[in-house]
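Lecture notes, continued. The same structure-token format from the folding unit now serves as the input rather than the output. Read the line below as a description of shape only.
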């Protein structure tokens, strides 16, 4: 009888462990992703650098870029061709937000909406601002373009310890569009976002998650 109870206990432990490995449901919508884009010209440009577009990259010519000229723990700046782009991060304060959990332990919604970056866990950092200056004009990037994006990564160290970045700023061939690109890692993969500026106005964003697993 003792042997039987031991076997039951072992099976219960194994079953519980299996439940802990159950995938966290991904509530994030795919409507803003690369595959759902209707703008064929912009989609063609993104295919030259976005990871979600790898299958469409063959034959694409690289777009003109501007270099990263300055960076720190909480910002990165790109500057060139009379354009300056600065992305800054901030500290995430859980007390200022409504947090939604899956099975009371996996954070899947912030303020009632699914989010990107540290999905399933508590993010530490926010994207606080995206500033774009073109000549003497400042392009307004609305908070809705980044309010649900967390854990930005501005730089990483290569094998020799030098600072590098996965992020970039690109120009469309006709120079009408500017693409501000960020790649950020998270526990269940990575997410990438491209903010599209057209004729000195914010047009839209393109977000894909679960890439580079």
């Amino acid at each position: 009888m003792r042997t039987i109870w031991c076997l039951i206990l072992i099976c219960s432990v194994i079953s519980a462990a299996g439940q802990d490995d159950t995938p966290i449901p991904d509530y994030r919508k795919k409507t803003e992703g690369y595959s759902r884009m209707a703008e064929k010209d912009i989609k063609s440009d993104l295919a030259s650098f976005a990871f979600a577009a790898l299958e469409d990259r063959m034959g694409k010519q690289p777009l003109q870029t501007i270099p990263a000229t300055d960076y720190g723990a909480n910002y990165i700046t790109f500057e060139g061709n009379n354009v300056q782009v600065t992305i800054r991060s901030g500290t995430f304060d859980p007390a200022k937000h409504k947090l939604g959990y899956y099975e009371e332990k996996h954070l899947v919604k912030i303020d009632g909406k699914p989010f990107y970056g540290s999905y399933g866990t508590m993010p530490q950092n926010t994207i606080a601002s995206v500033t774009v200056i073109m000549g003497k004009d400042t392009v307004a990037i609305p908070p809705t373009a980044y309010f649900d994006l967390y854990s930005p990564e501005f730089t990483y160290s290569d094998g020799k310890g030098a600072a590098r970045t996965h992020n970039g700023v690109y120009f469309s061939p006709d120079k009408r569009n500017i693409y501000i690109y960020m790649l950020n890692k998270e526990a269940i993969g990575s997410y990438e976002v491209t903010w599209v500026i057209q004729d000195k106005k914010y047009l839209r964003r393109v977000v894909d998650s679960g890439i580079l697993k």
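Point for the exam: Residues 2-20 form the longest helix (19 residues).
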